[in-house]
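Make up an example, fold above all:
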Amino acid sequence: MDITPLIKGDRKIINSYGAERFIISGHEYKSSIILMPGAVSTWENITPFVWSDELVEILINAIPGTEILLVGTGQKIVPIPTRLRQYFRTKNIHADVMDTGAACRTYNVLLSEERRVAAALQLV
């Protein structure tokens, strides 16, 4: 599904997503990703979604300056652990969990509005 809005500059935008891959600014990723306007990182794909220590560490290190964090947990929503949600609050980061498709679409909309958004996206 192509969901590409018009985004200016060198921002990392989600061109498409599916069961086996993400296309981010024309580049293919076959793993779960952490996406920020200027960077893409990957983490080991765990299905179903798990709030692993590795993912939590990646998020904490990757999101400085983020206002909104979207977490796409595949097809099933997996709530953010309380201690992590509290950490995000101390950093003034609004974290929202949704299925991966909704997170991808929301990320692109927020990016087009020039919001400080990041997304952790599990393959569907």
Notes: The first strand starts at residue 14 and ends at 17. The radius of gyration is 13 Å. The helical segments are 53-62, 82-90, 100-112.
